[in-house]
Each structure stands twice: as C-alpha cells, then as structure tokens.
Amino acid sequence: MSDTENNSKRRKFLTRSTQILGGIGGVFALIPFLSTMSPSERAKSAGAPIEVDVSSIQPGMYKVFEWRGKPVWVVRRTQEMINQIADRDDKLSDPMSNEEFQPSYAKNKYRSIKPEFLVLVGVCTHLGCSPLYKPNSQSTELGLDWKGGFFCPCHGSKFDLSGRVHKAMPAPSNLEVPPYYFASETKIVIGQDGESA
C-alpha cells in the first residue's frame, strides 16, 4: 500500500471520528438548553390539583383556597340557602349554566356535586375583580329582590348563591366552577375531575 492510500484512509478515519465526537458533544451541549424549556417545579405545582379539608367550614360560611394563582371559594350552604336557590330562574341570565363551558355537575340549579357545598373560582367574569360574599337575604343594600349571593363592587354584577349571574349585569356569564371531586366526606380535590366519595 502506498503512503498516499494510507494518508487517505487515516484522513477518512480521523474525519469520521471527529464528526461522531462532535455530534456527541453537540447533544451534551444541548441538554442544559433543552432542560430550561421544561416547566419549573413551582410552575408544575401551581397547576397541580389541591386537596382541601372542608370539615371546619360551618354552615353559611366559606373558605378561600388558592389554585392556579386564583382564589377558589368553598361555600357550605345552609338548608335555608339551598331553599332560596329554587325558583329564581326568571331573574338569571343562564340558570342552568348552558352558555359557557362548565363541568357537567355544574349544569343544575345548585351548580355543584352536593347541594351543601359550592366550589367556585372567586373571579368575576366581567373584568376579573373578586366579588364579595353577601349571603344575607334580609339585606336591602343590594335591592329588595336580593336573596343572598355574591356581589362584585367594581361594576355592580350580582350572582345568586350558586354563582349564577343576574340578568342585565355587566358580567357576561356565571362564575366559573373549577373541576373538582369529593375524595371523602370532608376532603375535596380541586383541579381534577374524578370519582366522588
């Protein structure tokens, strides 16, 4: 074999080896850049379902929890509050939650799995303000026809005790019901649909 042929084979071997090692090095150099594209642990946990204990919520009261950076209300309605929900369809824009996307268990007058517990995202559907919980049906500050519910002080939107918007209000739709299920009699998982206990 001549020196020219040996040099040619050596060059081809060195060229291929350099290409292979360069490719491997390139892959290892890309790993840190690709890992920055994955969501952080904080971002993953912010969107994760949360489990809340509702055993300490007294009838007529509510508690606020945070899910996905938004307030989520869990209201424990009294029997009187549940009775007031009935037969108010004529005052409401969308009494059965048909107009916007809602879980199937929100398409009833209680907008909940169990009438006693109401789970809502506490953000007005008009401009994103946080409505106030005004359960007192005897209060005349919101009008003589007020039967209790939620009131957004920013632009005056009124919602009943199921989070359904009254007619002729700035808010275009009912308050959002997030996905949730009962993990037990006293625990609710917010942020995921599932089998209720």
Structure description:
It is built from three helices and nine strands. The protein is an alpha+beta fold and 197 residues long. The chain folds into two domains: 1-38; 44-190, Rieske Iron-sulfur Protein (3-layer Sandwich). It has a three-stranded antiparallel β-sheet, with no helix packed on it. It has a three-stranded antiparallel β-sheet with strand order 2-3-4, with no helix packed on it. The protein has a three-stranded antiparallel β-sheet with strand order 5-6-7, with no helix packed on it. The model has no long low-confidence stretch (mean pLDDT 82).
* Structure summary, number of beta strands: 9
* Category from helices, strands and their pairing: alpha+beta
Give the strand order, joined by hyphens, for the main sheet: 1-9-8
- What form results from the Cα inertia axes? elongated
Q: What is the CATH architecture annotation of the largest domain?
A: 3-layer Sandwich
Largest sheet: 3 strands, antiparallel
CATH fold-level topology of the largest domain:
Rieske Iron-sulfur Protein
Radius of gyration of CA atoms, rounded to a whole number:
29 Å
Helix content: 10-25%
Give the CATH H-level superfamily of the largest domain. Rieske [2Fe-2S] iron-sulphur domain
Instruction: Spell the H/E element sequence.
Output: HHEEEHEEEEEE
**Tally of contiguous helical segments:** 3
- Top CATH class of the largest domain: Mainly Beta
| Uncertain parts | none
Strand fraction: 15-25%
**What number of domains?**
2
Mean pLDDT over the residues: 82
- Termini separation: 83 Å
